[in-house]
Design brief:
The protein is mainly β and 481 residues long. The chain has a four-stranded antiparallel sheet with strand order 3-4-5-6, with no helix packed on it. A four-stranded antiparallel sheet has the order 7-8-9-10, with helices on one face. Strand 3 and strand 4 form a beta hairpin. It is globular and about 70 Å long.
């Protein structure tokens, strides 16, 4: 056997060319893709034209380069150390930062992102197609056609009617149907409206699809934005006030139900057992529970204080409902009643406040339910259901009870047409409203019960007599008409 040996010659490393180590430069940061979303989620609520905290606005690139009330420039391109914005978001040794005010500091990665962007010149790389004129009170939206109206709401005294537009809520007086106020915010879409129980505040939820959700709280009397709270990265739906006016609940496209303190914006509840978008919420009459409906074909009950999911109010049997639920309203009652609810353990019963709600959605059929189960669950039952009503044509987008719960209104849309109906809550007898000219997405009762307002795709607001269905009046929500 022959053995072969290979010789390997290795050049001395010490004699090689000197090794040069370069510091890795941070990746290029995009204002439009990287920095702007952080500002939208954490900063724009308090630094927008409608609420310029500290005299500083952060909704446009040009505004970032300006100074606020302290006469310190927020962003100095190429100079993070001289940029007051960086100083404000810096986390101190106590774990807190000046901004976002009253909230947790930005994460280290977010702070680095902003700092690197400024160091790299604070370039505005917003695509030309995304650059639009700023929309605010000094530059209100201009309409080439009436807006699609997604929500209407009467004030508790019946003197005002709030109507959604683009980037704004329009406030009309109900006597002359004249436009009195334009509440212009940063949300492109406003999906749901609700006046506070005392009528002094108006809540609006919406956002920009795929970018941010926002809860707004306005004081309509002087057009003051009291609160703007960014929540999640998509549009919000179905806002409701707690009976004491302290809490706001709403649904989210991330399949959660959430609630915030109406004064501070701090989150107080998050429930995540829905498996699709949550589109409607309403509180029980005692405020102890929150009822929510969603595209997952379910209505769920949550205990507010503990944030605990309690039960599915609707049947969980596959096929019991034929489509997603979109809307819910609680039936007002003259006298508080209690009901005995079975406990999960030991067969014991406890007392709960009795409530009824009407729900509807994709299958067009309104249904009345009690919110608490009074019998033990059995497979396939729908024990909480009280009755069903004759279906409307198409998808039901909104339901609303009158002030005493004796009637409710519902609206629907199908194939470019719409319908508004008034149902007797007990008998199911219906009145169909006349001269509705297109798909209808929202309906509300005037507190005295003499009128219902509805609106939808073509921007027309209809006012009907709920007793006869006759059209009493109508107007087009077109501010620059």
């Amino acid at each position: 056997m022959r053995m072969f040996c290979a010789l390997v010659f290795v050049a001395p490393l010490a004699a090689a060319l000197p090794l040069t180590v370069r510091a890795e430069e941070p990746p290029k940061v995009s204002y439009y893709k990287d920095v702007r979303p952080v500002f939208q989620q954490h900063c724009n609520g308090c630094h927008q034209p409608a609420k310029p905290l500290g005299g500083y606005v952060m909704t446009t690139h040009a505004d970032l380069l300006k100074a606020g009330e302290r006469e310190k420039v927020g962003v100095v391109p190429g100079k993070p150390a001289q940029s007051y914005l960086v100083e404000q978001i810096k986390v101190h040794s106590n774990g807190k930062a000046e901004m976002p005010k009253g909230r947790d500091p930005l994460g280290a990665a977010q702070i680095k992102l902003i700092t690197d962007w400024i160091a790299q010149g604070a370039v505005d790389d917003t695509p030309a197609s995304a650059k639009a004129a700023a929309v605010d009170a000094s530059n209100p939206p201009k309409y080439s056609a009436p807006p699609v109206v997604t929500a209407v709401a009467f004030s508790p005294d019946g003197a005002q009617l709030a109507v959604t537009g683009y980037h704004e809520v329009l406030i009309y007086d109900t006597t002359e149907l004249k436009l009195r106020s334009r509440l212009i915010g940063i949300s492109e879409r406003v999906q749901s409206l609700a006046f506070s129980p005392d009528g002094k505040k108006l809540a609006a939820v919406g956002g920009a699809p795929g970018r941010f959700g926002e809860v707004q709280v306005w004081r309509p009397g002087d057009e003051k934005l009291l609160l703007s709270a960014p929540v999640t990265f998509d549009t919000l739906y179905g806002v409701s006030w707690s009976p004491d006016g302290k809490t706001l609940a709403f649904g989210c496209a991330d399949n959660t139900v959430r609630a915030i303190d109406a004064a501070s914006g701090k989150q107080t509840l998050q429930m995540g057992t829905h498996s699709d978008w949550v589109l409607g919420t309403v509180f029980s009459q005692d405020g102890a529970h929150l009822i929510s409906v969603g595209r997952d074909m379910s209505m769920k009950l949550t205990e507010v204080e503990t944030q605990r999911f309690v039960d599915n109010v609707t049947s969980i049997t596959p096929g019991a409902l034929k489509g997603g639920l979109i809307t819910v309203d609680r039936r007002p009652v003259k006298e508080r009643r209690v009901t005995k609810v079975p406990q999960d353990e030991g067969g014991k019963f406890i007392e709960k406040v009795y409530d009824e709600v009407v729900v509807a959605g994709a299958d067009g059929r309104p249904r009345l339910y009690k919110i608490h189960r009074e019998v033990k669950r059995q497979i396939g039952d729908d024990a909480n259901k009280i009755r069903e009503y004759e279906p409307l044509p198409g998808r039901v987008s909104a339901v609303a009870f009158n002030s005493d719960g004796s009637k409710f209104a519902a609206c629907s849309s199908l194939d470019g047409k719409g319908e508004v109906r008034v149902y007797d809550s007990t008998s199911g007898a219906k009145v169909v409203c006349e001269k509705v000219t297109g798909p209808v997405y929202t309906v509300a009762w005037q507190p005295d019960g003499k009128r219902i307002a509805s609106a939808g795709f073509d921007g027309t607001v209809w006012l009907h007599d709920p007793a006869t269905g006759k059209l009493v009046n109508s107007f087009v929500a077109l501010p620059n008409k």
